[in-house]
Structures are given as structure tokens and as C-alpha cells.
Design goal:
The chain is α/β, with parallel strands linked by helices. It folds into two domains: 204 residues, Spore Coat Polysaccharide Biosynthesis Protein SpsA, Chain A; 87 residues. The protein contains ten helices and nine strands. Strands 1, 2, 3, 4, 5, 6, 7, 8 and 9 form a nine-stranded mixed beta sheet that branches. Helix 7 packs antiparallel against helix 10 and helix 8 packs antiparallel against helix 9. The two termini are 36 Å apart.
Length: 309
């Protein structure tokens, strides 16, 4: 059991590690460069690559573990229950040096905001490529341009790769929302799920001042493509059953990746698009049989791996 933070005004930075020691080292370097003091938390997988506390972690870093991204996020929120705010960042995210400072400033100036995503200067997944480390660092080191942008715009989701949460809601009560641990692995649509529920307690926004780059280094992980394809079909329906998504939103969220995966078969993305499409089709079959169980995608992958051995 990790003890809670001793001071109620602390801010925590949670690094979501996904099993790559080099990426975690780079993320730790970015955390040390932050201009605003914070409590460092490293969220590690409980099993598989990356499990166990790396020797390179600072002695004062808190470590939490979990089998999935939502489980690790919830463990981090519980560990820093005394914090004013929590900033989450994946290990392939490069933050501007004043990112945490800008998050805290924005939340102080906008007490009705309970969750925010910063300005993504480069988005590897959206660009369809991996952003190199030098390119990412150059982007976050470039002269600021946020004064040319609107300070914020309303949103109904957070970007899971990097976002911040105020732990006290607009009504002064602790934010009761947690991440849905029924969503396995990297938890497709967890940002939509959490953002929609956070709206019950205050505003959710995209803010211009906190800046970052998402390198997108986990997109091409072949082992993850089939279960991700399964999640693209099943998770929207799971969220609809929980009352988070309307039927129309769930269908849009389901059909958009299906079309993209089918269209991507004609280009250089064919290998991983094909794996995702296979997962899509398995999801469609399960839904047609009345099975809307997010965990089945990961279990099917585990069964394939056992059969291969």
C-alpha cells in the first residue's frame, strides 16, 4: 500500500510505462526537466516486459502497478489522493519543460475545469508515423505560439496519452470518477469514457498553454493489433451499455476504424491494418452472438500465444 501524499497542494506527474526501458529513461529525463515541482509516480505493468521497479528510478519516485492501463491509472489516483491535480503522460510523450506548471496555472485560473488535454504539437498516431526523439524535442523547445491560439476549447474527452485531472471537482468534493478496469490492455476509448463521466462534475477542455508531442511509438506493435481491432468493435458497445455513449455515438465509434482498417489494406499500413481488421471481424462475430465482453479480445490473444508454444 503506497502512503498518500502528505501535503494537499501537491501535484503529481504519473508516467505510464509500457515495458520499454529506454522510453522510460527518456520520460524520466523529461520529468526532471519540469519547471514546476511535483511528486513523481511511475505506473508499471504488473506482469510481462517492464514489470518490477527499474534500478534507474529515483529513490523518491512512487511506483504503482496494474495489469491494464486503467488499473495503473486508478492505482496512481489512489496513491496520490492528497494531490491537487494529477498529470498523466505515456512513456512515448515528450512534454514541454513547463507543461506541469502550465497545467497548474490553467486549473488555478479556471476552477470549473476538472480535466484537460494540452496542445498536441505533433501527434504520431494521427500523422501515421513515429515521431523521432530529436524532432519531438525540437517541437517542444520551439518559441511558444499558444498566445495565438484560443486559451481553451470545450471537449468531451481526454487524450489518454497525456492529460490532467483535478482531484477536487467544481463543487469542492473529491472527484469520484475512476477508469473502467473492464477495458483491458491499452484500453481503447478510455479517454472518451473518462471524459464523458468527468463532465458530470465540471468542464473538460483542450488547453493551449500546456504543450506536448505524442511520438506514437506503440502504434505499430504487431502483437497488439488484433486485440485492438477487437476493442474497436466491442468497447463502443460496452460504453453504450454503461450509459456513457449514445447508440449513435457508439455506432460512429465502431464504424470509423472498421472503414479505416479496410481502406488501409491498399497501402504500406497493410500488415497491421490486416491484423486490426481480423480483430474487428472477431468482434463483429461476438457481438452478433450477444457477447459484449471487452476481456475476450485479450483472452483470445493469450490463447493464440499458448497454442503457438
Amino acid at each position: 500500500m503506497v502512503p498518500p501524499l502528505p501535503a494537499p497542494d501537491d501535484v503529481a506527474l504519473v508516467l505510464m510505462a509500457h515495458g520499454d526501458a529506454d522510453l522510460l529513461a527518456q520520460a524520466l529525463e523529461g520529468a526532471r526537466a519540469q519547471t514546476r515541482a511535483h511528486r513523481l509516480v511511475v505506473a508499471l505493468p504488473s506482469t510481462g516486459p517492464g514489470a518490477g521497479r527499474p534500478a534507474s528510478l529515483p529513490a523518491d519516485a512512487l511506483v504503482v502497478t496494474g495489469a491494464s492501463a486503467p488499473a495503473r491509472r486508478n492505482a496512481a489516483l489512489d496513491a496520490v489522493a492528497g494531490a491537487r491535480a494529477v498529470v498523466f503522460a505515456d512513456d512515448d510523450v515528450v512534454l514541454r519543460a513547463d507543461h506541469v506548471e502550465q497545467v497548474v496555472r490553467f486549473l488555478d485560473e479556471h476552477p470549473g475545469v476538472v480535466a484537460l488535454t494540452g496542445r498536441v504539437l505533433l501527434d504520431g498516431p494521427a500523422l501515421g508515423r513515429r515521431v523521432g526523439l530529436d524532432e519531438a524535442r525540437a517541437a517542444v523547445s520551439a518559441p511558444r505560439t499558444d498566445a495565438l491560439q484560443p486559451p481553451s476549447r470545450p471537449a468531451d474527452d481526454v487524450y489518454p496519452s497525456a492529460f490532467a485531472v483535478r482531484l477536487l471537482a467544481a463543487d469542492g468534493q473529491p472527484l469520484p470518477e475512476r477508469f473502467d478496469e473492464a477495458l483491458p490492455g491499452r484500453a481503447w476509448l478510455e479517454g472518451v469514457d473518462f471524459g464523458r463521466r468527468a463532465l458530470r462534475h465540471g468542464a473538460v477542455v483542450h488547453a493551449a498553454a500546456p504543450a506536448l508531442v505524442v511520438r506514437g511509438l506503440h502504434v505499430g506493435d504487431d502483437a497488439a493489433q488484433s486485440p485492438l481491432g477487437y476493442a474497436q468493435v466491442v468497447h463502443p458497445l460496452h460504453l453504450h451499455r454503461r450509459g456513457v455513449l449514445t447508440r449513435a455515438d457508439a455506432l460512429r465509434s465502431l464504424l470509423r476504424p472498421l472503414v479505416a482498417n479496410a481502406a488501409g489494406l491498399r497501402g504500406g499500413e497493410r500488415p497491421w491494418r490486416l491484423q486490426r481488421l481480423r480483430g474487428n471481424l472477431r468482434g463483429v462475430v461476438d457481438v452478433a452472438r450477444g457477447r459484449v465482453d471487452p476481456s475476450r479480445g485479450e483472452r483470445a490473444l493469450a490463447g493464440q500465444a499458448s497454442a503457438a508454444r
